[in-house]
Design goal:
Layout: H1 6-13, E1 18-28, E2 38-44, E3 64-67, H2 68-77, E4 82-86, H3 96-105, E5 109-114, E6 128-133, E7 157-162, H4 165-178, E8 185-190, H5 197-207, E9 212-213, H6 217-222
Parallel strand pairs: 2-4, 4-5, 5-6, 6-7, 7-8, 8-9
Antiparallel strand pairs: 1-2, 1-3
Amino acid sequence: MDTPSAESGAALAAVPDRLRITEIFLSLQGEARDAGWPTVFVRLTGCPLRCTYCDTAYAFHGGEWREIDAILAEVESHGVRHVCVTGGEPLAQKRCIGLLQRLCDAGYVVSLETSGAIDIGDVDPRVSRVLDIKTPGSGEEGRNLWSNLGLLTPNDQVKFVICNRADYEWARGMVAEHAIHQRCDVLFSPSKSELDARELADWIVADRLPVRFQVQLHKILWNDEPGR
């Protein structure tokens, strides 16, 4: 049986670490714990889910291959401390794990926005993993990887996007059943096109839920403009 030559092995070793990137841009973080901070967003291309309320479908396809060294150089050029790796679903690209580690090593405050459909166990513990648990209204409830809940730490965050009252009651039950609020911050967000923000806020207050209400600050400021 043929075995790889030393030359072919060297060629494979020389292949740079690359990721397919939709965009890298500077904006304000619009949600979660770091809302309001100037943040560099690194948006990876591709996602195996198709949530009904997705606002970044343009990241499903296309993008361009970028070496991780080049990604870090562009992040550094923006001159801010906070970096958010998002998508699409960033963990669908295996080399995302290496990017996250290198960002942490460089001293950035790093967050990862992930659907929760892919195992988060290999993510650097210095990263704040923002786990988006999919409600029935998302159309992707069946993709939730529930074993991820056991990996959560106080550095992480869990987000529920609420589409309607049924979603709210479902999410309320999940928080109680799994005691998620005892593991990390829990965020409830209204689906922009489906649920009035004030209505969701009233439900949370009435039930005295141990969760944080949030709206997407960037949508208030810039609507659905890509790169903002």
